[in-house]
Each structure stands twice: as C-alpha cells, then as structure tokens.
Amino acid sequence: MKNGSNIEEHLLLQYLLRQTSAEDNTRIEAWLMENKGNRLLLDRLETLWAEAGKLTPSPVAVDTDAAWQRFSALIDRQEKGDSRPIARFPVTMHYLRYAMVAAAVLVLLIGIFAVYRFAAKPAQQLEMVAGMTLLTDTLPDGSPVALRAGSRLTFPDQFDKRFREVRLTGEAFFKVRPDRDQPFIVVAGKAIIRVVGTAFDVKAFPGRDITVAVEEGMVQLFTIDPVSGDTASILLEEGMKGYLPAGKMIPVRIDSHNPDELFWLDHQLVFRETDLALVIDILERNYKVRIRVSDPRINHCRLTATFTDEPIDRIMNVVAASFNLELNIENRNYLLQGTGCSRENQ
C-alpha cells in the first residue's frame, strides 16, 4: 500500500531505520515538507502510537521491528474480517496504517531524544567556554567546532553510541564528521538541531531568536512541546536559514542574506547589491568606527563586493572608488562626500 504522496510505507520505515539511499532520503524529506497536513497527521496519531506502541518515558530502547509486527498483525486481522477491537478509542483503518509511519517518525524526533534524556547521564560532562576571543577545538568524535566569544558548549567526554549530543549557549560553527548511524544533535534553548554530516552555524543567545544557517549538507530544526509532546520541524539545505522566534515553538524557514553572517569566524563580508546605509551599519558594528555621508543619496548606492580579512581603510577606499566619492579619514572617523545615487539609477 502507498500513502497519498505515493511513498510506500515500508520505504518510510526503512528511512527512519536509516536503511535508505540518499535519493530516497531526499524524496521522503520532501514529502515531510509538502504540506502541513502531513505534520498534523503525525501529531494526531501521537496518542494512538503511545497506546499501541506502549511508549513510556522509561529508559529503554524503542523496538521498531516489534512495533511494526504488532501493527501489521492488527491490520491483517481486521482485513480478514475479525471484528475484535484493535484500539480502545475509535480510529479508522486509514489512520491506523499511518500510525506505523508516525511511530517511526516519533522515534526520529522524540524517541532517540526524549528517551535519552531519562537515561543515565554520561559519567563526565566537559565544557568549552570562549571568553573574550574566538575559541576553536574538536569534539570527542573529531568534529571541529568554533565558538564565538562569550559562548559556551557542553558535551560528554564520550558520545553515546546512538547519537552525539551537545548543548549550546551563544554561537558556534560546527563541521560535523558524517556518521548516519550516530546523528549529531545540538540542543540550543527550546530548539533542537539534528544533522548527520554537514557544516552549519547556530546562534542561540538567551532571550533572542535562535537561528541556524547551513553552509553544507542538510539539517533538521525542530522543537518538542514539553507538555503535549507535539513536534514541529523544518528541513534546511545548503544556503538556507531557519529560526525559532524567541518564546515560540514553531520554527520558520527564511530566505535572507546577512553580509556579516560569519564575520566573527572568518572576517569575511559578502555584499550583494547591498544599500550603503546597511554597508555602513555593518562596518561600524564590526570595525568599531564611525562613518558619515555628506549627502543622504549616498546611502541609496548599492555595493556588490567581497572582503576577506581586509583592514577598514582599504574597504572604505573601495567603497569610495566604486561610486566616485571622496573619502576623508580622521583617526577612526570616515566621511564619504559626493552626490551619491538616486533610487531610479542605483
């Protein structure tokens, strides 16, 4: 039997058991993002699965093979005309079949994570703290991590065999060593980021939006409601960004470009038709300088340029030359003079 999107149920189960190909993974993950109905269906089935699958918060592994056999037996019995009840509350056979998919998805989203929380903690927790400067190091699995100044990362001295979990406060850039059998999980406030092997940045300062920017590969940003157990998630591919608004539980995918996204890490600025008003703001913030313009129309000019570890004087000279402006420098104060650009002829 196939579901509404023509994805076979056994294929979905194999995916959640990490037995599918990269091509199948892409297809299934696209199905998860197709519409809200797919996610809502999983939420509606949580109660059913907890009953039929006997999920509890006890520290035991979830046997998905046994669960599949239990559900298959129930369905076979119903299709043969056995009228004995298969659940203690009314559900249709259509929903019962979907329960098998929901079971595996819950293993992915909360089984491996929530169950782990109740298990015994590692004997020793290590802490990486970046003081006033950038800190780079490697995690127990060999994955490199860069920690922004004022940030903190906590992790066990030896990762669990099922997955690798770290907890972040602040901002960090990870380049995770690929291991499909041992996913990498970042817990950042209310957000949970799950990856297999990729490079990505997580920004999670207390009281602010939590953001995830993917440089390579694919990551899953999701939340688990602590009361209902409901989950909400989005998939982010290379070049995508997502964020969890402060105080909210629904992650959002965004299409935006921050010229100084990783300036703290690589001192790179990437401007793409960026208004000089924003360019000036970014330069003042990152270089601790003051920049003024003689004519407001200068702010309307748009800059396309990439600077990597360049001194502020060189950057300002490039900006001035790009728009035939005169540059005056006095200590760390800069003045751009000229006619600028009109909005019609930028």
Structure write-up:
It is a single chain. This protein has 346 residues and is an alpha+beta fold. It folds into three domains: 9-118, no CATH class; 125-254, Jelly Rolls (Sandwich), CATH 2.60.120; 263-337, 3-Layer(bab) Sandwich (Phage tail protein beta-alpha-beta fold). 31% of the residues lie in helices and 30% in strands. It is built from eight helices and 18 strands. The chain has helices at residues 9-16, 22-34, 36-52, 64-79, 93-118, 263-266, 276-287, 312-322; strands at 125-129, 135-138, 144-147, 152-156, 164-175, 184-188, 191-195, 199-204, 210-216, 218-224, 231-237, 241-244, 252-254, 268-275, 290-293, 302-308, 326-330, 333-337. Strands 1, 2, 3, 4, 5, 6, 7, 8, 9, 10, 11, 12 and 13 form a 13-stranded mixed sheet that branches. Strands 15-18-17 form a three-stranded mixed sheet, covered by helices on one side. Strands 14-16 form a two-stranded antiparallel ribbon. A hairpin with a 5-residue loop joins strand 8 and strand 9. The protein starts with 8 loop residues before the first helix and ends in a 9-residue tail after the last strand.
SSE topology sketch:
Elements: H1 9-16, H2 22-34, H3 36-52, H4 64-79, H5 93-118, E1 125-129, E2 135-138, E3 144-147, E4 152-156, E5 164-175, E6 184-188, E7 191-195, E8 199-204, E9 210-216, E10 218-224, E11 231-237, E12 241-244, E13 252-254, H6 263-266, E14 268-275, H7 276-287, E15 290-293, E16 302-308, H8 312-322, E17 326-330, E18 333-337
Parallel strand pairs: 5-6, 15-18
Antiparallel strand pairs: 1-4, 2-3, 3-5, 4-5, 5-8, 6-7, 7-10, 8-9, 9-12, 10-11, 12-13, 14-16, 17-18
Helix pairs in contact: 1-5, 2-3, 3-5, 4-5
